[in-house]
């Protein structure tokens, strides 16, 4: 028998959101509007180059991101989605036995990627659906290597504010890498949710994670990145799987960055719909916490799986975390209305 690491045998695999032909898919926090028009046009031009390897240094994309964020390109590392970049960050600092702290529940890839990197998972319970930064700081030990702060948090949709985040970063020792995962940053109210890049751009132990999968509507092409101090970024780049970001993905991301007006228009539509869905759910007797993301969280506890089953049986796919809650992505207005109608028929059971 081949020797397999015991920690992997016990590890639960990542569970992707379901897809089904003809169904309304509100299970993966994707953008419902399809490719940005400029991205679709650019992809059509590019297929001729696919027999060659892509630019491993992703130079055009790094330059475009550097211009967007007003930093030098040596502060940015890219990967095949921010999931790969999460793994890269863990491989850079965690290693065998290194402790990795994060709120729970949060992004389900954190424990998986930590374990794959050989690190030790330290989960700190949320408080009222929000990451408890004080308890997370208290969980940092001499063995801690990395802390994830998911802001806004997936799947509970809540955020932590500027003063709490500042106090947290001030408290974490400098040898520990703080990763602020801002996958849903574009959907958050800037008055309530800090931009960690603006706040901590000069800190050597803070890295900010962003993705093209959500507001930029590129989940299928796999591009994410992190921004941090050049010293740590140089090491993170070494951990990338060679050529993991395809040439199509790089060029699509460059084209997407040029469409910030269309992105902003779509984000505004999604935020308006999110607020409508939240309002209507509350009127029906549900209790979603205030969302700063492109999804809402229904803390239905032991009814979560049954609620998701009720939706699925009626052609709407939502994401259940059995025993905890249900995450519902904001889709097109008519999709959200279809979901709300199902939530209304279920609400008699609340
Ligand atoms: N971080 C968070 C908080 C997420 O919710 C997700 C996607 N579900 C990711 C990172 C990774 O997204 P991607 O790999 O598509 O960039």
Draw up the topology in text.
Layout: H1 6-9, E1 24-25, H2 37-46, H3 59-69, E2 76-79, H4 81-93, E3 99-104, H5 109-116, E4 120-125, H6 133-138, E5 144-150, H7 162-171, E6 177-181, H8 196-200, E7 206-211, E8 224-227, H9 230-238, H10 247-257, H11 260-283, E9 295-298, H12 304-313, E10 316-317, E11 319-321, E12 325-329, H13 333-346
Parallel strand pairs: 1-10, 3-4, 3-5, 5-6, 6-7
Antiparallel strand pairs: 2-8, 7-8, 9-12, 11-12
This protein binds 4'-deoxy-4'-aminopyridoxal-5'-phosphate.
The site of 4'-deoxy-4'-aminopyridoxal-5'-phosphate has 13 residues, from helix 4.
Please provide a written account of the structure.
- This protein has 350 residues and is α/β, with parallel strands linked by helices.
- The protein has two domains: 6-30 and 260-349, Aspartate Aminotransferase, domain 1 (Alpha-Beta Complex); 37-256, Aspartate Aminotransferase, domain 2.
- Helices cover 39% and strands 15% of the residues.
- It is built from 13 helices and twelve strands.
- A seven-stranded mixed β-sheet has the order 2-8-7-6-5-3-4, with helices on both faces. It has a three-stranded antiparallel β-sheet with strand order 9-12-11, with helices on one face.
- Strand 5, helix 7 and strand 6 form a beta-alpha-beta unit.
- The longest helix is centred in the C-terminal third of the chain and has 24 residues, at 260-283.
- The radius of gyration is 20 Å and the shape is globular.
- It binds 4'-deoxy-4'-aminopyridoxal-5'-phosphate.
- 4'-deoxy-4'-aminopyridoxal-5'-phosphate (PMP) is lined by residues 29, 81-83, 107, 150, 154, 181, 183, 211, 213, 219, 224.
């Amino acid at each position: 028998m081949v020797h397999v690491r015991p920690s992997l045998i016990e590890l639960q695999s990542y569970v992707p959101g379901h897809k089904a032909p003809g169904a309304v898919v509100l299970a993966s926090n994707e953008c419902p509007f399809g490719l940005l028009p400029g991205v679709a046009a650019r992809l059509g031009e590019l297929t001729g180059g696919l027999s060659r390897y892509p630019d491993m240094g992703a130079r055009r994309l790094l330059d475009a991101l550097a211009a967007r964020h007003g930093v030098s390109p040596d502060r940015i590392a890219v990967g095949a989605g921010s999931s790969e970049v999460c793994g890269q960050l863990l491989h850079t600092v965690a290693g065998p036995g290194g402790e990795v702290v994060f709120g729970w529940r949060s992004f389900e890839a954190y424990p998986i990627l930590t374990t794959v990197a050989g690190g030790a998972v330290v989960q700190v319970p949320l408080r009222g659906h929000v990451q408890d930064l004080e308890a997370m700081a208290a969980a940092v030990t001499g063995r801690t290597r990395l802390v994830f702060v998911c802001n806004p948090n997936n799947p509970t949709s809540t955020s932590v504010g500027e003063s709490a985040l500042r106090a947290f970063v001030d408290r974490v020792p400098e040898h520990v890498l703080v990763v602020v995962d801002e996958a849903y940053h574009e959907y958050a109210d800037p008055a309530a949710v800090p931009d960690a890049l603006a706040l901590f751009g000069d800190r050597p132990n803070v890295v900010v994670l962003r993705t093209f999968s959500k507001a930029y509507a590129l989940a299928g092409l796999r591009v994410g990145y992190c921004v941090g101090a050049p010293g740590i970024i140089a090491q993170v780049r070494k951990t990338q799987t060679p050529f993991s970001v395809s040439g199509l993905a790089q060029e699509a991301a460059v084209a997407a960055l040029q469409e910030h007006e269309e992105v902003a228009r779509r984000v505004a539509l999604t935020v308006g719909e999110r607020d409508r869905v939240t309002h209507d759910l509350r009127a029906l007797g549900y209790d979603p916490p205030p969302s700063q993301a492109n999804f809402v969280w229904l803390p239905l506890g032991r009814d979560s799986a049954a609620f998701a089953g009720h939706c699925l049986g009626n052609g709407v796919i939502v994401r259940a975390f059995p025993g905890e809650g249900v995450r519902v992505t904001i889709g097109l207005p008519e999709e959200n209305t279809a979901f709300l109608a199902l939530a209304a028929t279920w609400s008699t059971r609340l």
